[in-house]
Specification:
It is a single chain. The protein is an all-alpha fold. The chain contains 11 helices and no strands. Helix 4 packs across helix 7. It is flat, with a radius of gyration of 21 Å.
Length: about 250
């Protein structure tokens, strides 16, 4: 029991506090939901079958955008830390900054004029909006690796590719995954805006609540988005903790 409590104390606070917060907020919402009288429109939107579809659509939108962002940003970040490509670094960061600095709604509307409405346009807008955290953290993480470690691995005969895969990336993993977590939370929140361009998400509950003045529907959408963001952030933290090499 002593060993178990000691191990628990060694865990970072967010690893156990965040799920506790999720349970408390989720239980509070469930109690409120079961003891509240809804209008016919609210009841139709908040039945489990309808709510399940909306939540799954939101998760699908977030997951697809995240996979694309990771596939683009991490390899690009690796390339930009290579000596022969460092001159391109400011250009890439500034382009990513443009996507991050632009208002999310404005960005989605601009892409709608170009690509039309729907799921594909929402994914592209989200990808542009979330590239910066992962790209920047990949660059920072790889640059923080001690160059003496890199030189030592090259000195024992390892190729540049093996050094990158076996030395640099494992040491940069905590910083890179922190960027992925940040991007995930951004995507979960920003995905609510996709409802304005015809892609279903939890934002549908929020916009319907605002448009028809249904505060209970608005509150439900906001709480569910918040819970989803907390769950995603916590799962990302667990992956980050598991993937971090011992001693870092």
């Amino acid at each position: 029991m002593t060993a178990l409590s000691a191990r628990f104390r060694r865990l970072p606070m967010d690893v156990w506090f965040e799920p506790l917060l999720i349970v408390v907020v989720g239980a509070g919402y469930l109690i409120w939901y079961l003891n509240t009288t809804f209008t016919e429109t609210e009841s139709a939107a908040l039945t489990w079958s309808s709510l399940q579809t909306t939540i799954l659509d939101h998760i699908k939108l977030t997951a697809v955008a995240t996979v694309i962002v990771v596939v683009i940003a991490i390899p690009l970040g690796i390339v930009l830390t290579r000596p022969w490509a460092r001159l391109l670094n400011p250009i890439a960061i500034n382009l990513a900054n443009v996507g991050q600095a632009a208002p999310a709604v404005g960005l989605l509307v601009l892409f709608t004029f170009w690509l039309g409405t729907g799921f594909r346009t929402a994914v592209i807008g989200l990808v542009v909006y979330a590239v910066l955290p992962i790209l920047q953290n990949t660059i920072v993480g790889l640059r923080q690796v001690d160059q003496r470690t890199v030189e030592a691995s090259r000195g024992i005969g390892m190729s540049a590719v093996r050094t990158l895969v076996l030395v640099e990336l494992p040491l940069a993993v905590p910083v890179i995954l922190n960027g992925v977590r940040t991007a995930l939370v951004i995507l979960v929140g920003t995905a609510t805006l996709s409802t304005f361009i015809g892609a279903t998400s939890l934002g549908t509950l929020i916009t319907t609540g605002v448009t028809l003045f249904l505060p209970k529907l608005l509150i439900s959408g906001a709480i569910l988005v918040g819970l989803l963001a907390l769950i995603v952030d916590w799962l990302g933290r667990l992956v980050e903790l598991a993937a971090t090499p011992r001693g870092i």
